[in-house]
Write a structure and sequence with these properties.
Elements (H helix, E strand, L loop, with lengths): L5 H10 L4 E6 L2 E2 L5 E2 L18 H4 L5 H6 L4 E8 L3 H19 L4 E7 L3 H4 L3 H15 L3 E5 L2
Parallel strand pairs: 1-5, 4-5
Antiparallel strand pairs: 2-3, 4-6
Protein name: 2-oxoglutarate oxidoreductase
GO molecular function, one term: thiamine pyrophosphate binding
GO biological process, one term: small molecule metabolic process
Length: about 150
Amino acid sequence: MACIGTAETIHALNRGENITIIFINNGIYGMTGGQMAPTTLVGMKSSTSPYGRDVKLHGYPLKITELAAQLEGTAYVTRQSVQSVPAIRKAKKAIRKAFENSMSGKGSNLVEIVSTCSSGWKMSPEQANEWMVENMFPFYPLGDLKDKE
């Protein structure tokens, strides 16, 4: 969503379409071999950036959720995670709220889920959760960015 489909996503959100988008952000293209993605952190290694993301070469990571929160058509924009049972419960609650907003005609909703990719990151699930908390959360902080409620 942060690469192929970005233009369509931004315009749909800006129009206030009564849709909910669930965006999984694990910092890489996990299903296609672990290549660098628009959300790959600076210095984060991937199969196509073995020395880590270099700002001079690759640019900065894209904070799509912050962009969405600035659009007039969005009603609810939040970033959640799935590293623990309480976090999963909060993510589930956010997704429910977003769908309820869509069904009530309140406008566009975006729920970003910061997640791990144990295989793509080449870590155990425990290591991946720790890495996510220590590295991804500071750059992609959790919480509601916009709630027109």
